[in-house]
Amino acid sequence: MSQAWWSELGLFLDLIAFAILSYDLVRSIDGERTAREEIYRLERKAFNARYGVFAPAAEVVMQQQEDFNARQEERRRKSDDSIASRKIWAWGAIALATIGFIMQLYGGWPT
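-> structure tokens emitted (111 positions)
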């Protein structure tokens, strides 16, 4: 395989990595966590406001609180799994771009 082909393949790998990283940037890895925490704060305020004055029996409130906490933990777990998966894709794309760059250096610039 000639050096020109190495350069072309390296450029192609860089373009694929750029597409993956661009897509991931749009999805905003850390922005998802920030938005999630804001939603939890709003839900907590709504829950507290609903039972602030006229509260039902303590058992009902405790059951609803446990249900709320279970839903919140499930959402947090799913969100953390999503964030971890996206970070793996991002690191994979960075590795792909690095390999592509090295291939371009070996092959020289296309003429």
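The chain has one domain: 3-107.
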